[in-house]
Amino acid sequence: MSISLLLIGAILLLYRQQQINRFKHINSKLQKSDERLHQALKGSDSDLWEWHDSNQLISLDNRGGVLGAEPTFTLAIAELPLHPADMDRFNKTWLEFYGCQTDVLDIEYRYLHPQDRTWHWLRINGRAVEVDSQAGKVIHAAGMYTDITKKRALESEVNLLAQAFENTSEGMLILNVNKDIKISNAAANLILASHKADLAGKPFIELVAESTEPFDMDDVFDKERFWTGECEFYCIDGSRCPVWMNVSTMINDSAESLYYVVVFSDITERKHSEQHLKRLANNDTLTGLANRSMFSRRLGQVIEAAKQHDETLALLFLDLDRFKHVNDSYGHGMGDALLVEAASRLQGCLSDEHLLCRFGGDEFVILLRDAKDIDTINHIAKQLLNQIEMPFKLYGREFFISTSIGISIWSGDDQTPETLIKNADLAMYHAKEEGRGNFQYYSAERNAEALYHLRLEADLHKAIAANEFEIYYQPQVNVDNNRLAGVEALIRWHHPSDGLVRPDVFIGIAESCGLIVDIDRWVLTQACIDGARWYKEYQQDFLVSVNVSTMHFRQPDFIDFINATLHRTGMPAKCLSIEITEGVLMREIDIATQHLLALKQLGVDVAIDDFGTGYSSLAYLRTFKVNTLKIDRSFLIHIDQNQADQAIVSSIIELARNLSLEVIAEGIETPEQLAQVVKRGCHIIQGYYFAKPMPKAELEQHMKQYL
Ligand SMILES: Nc1nc2c(ncn2[C@@H]2O[C@@H]3COP(=O)(O)O[C@H]4[C@@H](O)[C@H](n5cnc6c(=O)[nH]c(N)nc65)O[C@@H]4COP(=O)(O)O[C@H]3[C@H]2O)c(=O)[nH]1
User: One Pfam annotation, family name (predicted)?
Assistant: First the structure.
């Protein structure tokens, strides 16, 4: 019995020992599992919680240290140190869970950390373990709480970046490794007139229309990995948009491309203002034509091209005649309108290959390409003249203007663009001299002459002060008694380097630059000084004739000057003769009439020089009181043989006689010429036959013999 009891006891002991061992084994497993769980919870910043309705307390198993160092603690829900701003949301969620309105509890809120006393983000999630379904409430719940402060911070950073991506004013596209669009931001959709859905999945290359720099997709994305430059995108609506684009590649650690980022901005405005500036720099703002600087550039290029292709070019320089009058009389608005209309008419005469430019003011320049054929140039020039001569109807008024055109030709020579323009300009001046409204070609000879005249003009300004003028006197002889009737004062210029310059060369220049008035007055003064002295010496009514130019005669103080000179020099008025040409009497008749009357009142003689060459009507002889007609030399040169000249000279002498005028034959060189005029009744002769113009000293010798 005792053995059996002992055996049973031993078996029980063994069994118990086995149970203890099994329990220990299970316990150790549980402990390990619990440890692993806590390690896992700790690794994820989480710990466990449990809540019982019976005591309304929440137990926080804080072994992971989420809420500080204290391992486990228990507190009522209301004691949780919640952020005031999260309080209501927390309570509402908890009550819904407690009231079984939701199966799970999942809430994020801020919690005052007991250790660092800062607000941490905590996420609580869990489930009901036991529910009183009759009362509709949770009796026992458990779950996990996690510190999500870092995750929250990361999320807000990501949100920030996402917002920045979405809201930046630059368009942004993120492409996947196949270079298809993965994401686009709002600006990209705005620029490309698209919606996100339009772009998603679209191959990026389909967007690119054009770029100013070469853009090889594969090269740029996978080799260079960075590209920046100007390019044009196709918008979804089919239009094109210029953009400034920046492409970069995102790579992984193995340097493989992961994504591509395309950042771009719409440069339409910039392009417009660039174009506007370009237009301002290259085009005339009024007419829209090429301006001077653009023309000069193009001319240089065209000449270079012409050299290669053996091309001939013609450059036409146009200046509108009488434009200044329109501008001055009707204002700049009218002038501008006229220029615009003129530009359009000129352009209408030219095909696209030719270049028209507004050179400035009322000047236009045209470059004709491939101008081998002179007839073609002439034809175009005539068309241009005709177009401008047609009436301009502007703001209810009608204007008539013309244009003068100078043409220079380039045919493989070494003329620079500047010379080509300058020569056409010179030729244009020649066209003006030829009476405006015509075209002239540039000629080197004419240019040399023009340059010579320019030099003389500069020298003329200094000539009076430098005492370079001298008066020669040419005798006028009365053939009845072979005595001296008078002398004509004729100016001579001793140019310091060119020697004696003839008056018919420099008088014209002096007239064109206005110096003639000073020159005439110098001659008049000298002639009066001499004449006064001769009168005193010889006491004879002996005429000293002085040439007076049109400009001088028209001066308002002309009579005052004559009067003052007579007084100043003591020259008797009756000894002075003023020689004017018929042209003087034809324009500004009122002034001519007044001045002639005043001369008559002064007692000064007036002679019409070069008579018969100027004006066709002789009616003016009725109006103007003159004393003498000087027969022009051109009628006398061949009078010996030419019957027409004989008839004309007879008529002039007859006319003078009938009007009681004196008549002088000028330019008599031979006895035959002399005989022809004398037999027709002209007795006063001026010509080489008797004497050439001579210096004063020589004349004074002559006077002693013939006066
Ligand atoms: N071949 C030839 N020529 C003869 C003969 N007889 C006279 N002459 C020239 O004929 C010109 C006459 O002067 P003009 O008709 O008033 O023509 C003048 C006059 O229009 C102008 N001139 C000269 N001196 C003055 C001046 O002081 N003031 C102005 N405004 N003009 C002047 O220059 C013109 C040319 O003057 P000149 O060269 O001195 O030329 C002078 C004279 O030398 C002749 O028998 N044969």
Answer: GGDEF
